[in-house]
Amino acid sequence: MNTTTAFRATPAAARPDVIDALLTLKSREEAEAFLADLCTPGEIRALSERWLVARLLDGGELSYREIAERADASTATVVRVARFLKDMPYQGYRRVLDRLKRQK
Known about the structure:
This protein is an all-alpha fold. The protein has a single domain (11-103), classed as Orthogonal Bundle (Trp Operon Repressor, Chain A), CATH 1.10.1270.10. The chain is built from six helices and no strands. The longest helix is centred in the middle third of the chain and has 19 residues, at 41-59. It is globular and about 45 Å long. The chain starts with 14 loop residues before the first helix and ends with a helix.
């Protein structure tokens, strides 16, 4: 069997495959190793920055400017994350933040 037919052949079509791969990870160590292989250090930093911004926004105690300074992010990033946290239909940030709160 040709292995290229076992997965989606274009980057855009491969997105579900990436999600499936993430769902197989069973530990923090596995996730760190997979992200290190999959992403550049800059991409990991960008993901981490957005996640920190989401957590700081969820805390509700800081201004956008203060969050940008603490996260070493642009105010545009803070605004974008805030929009996705509050208004966008995906609610991915909200879902994960709420689950993490319930785990504590």
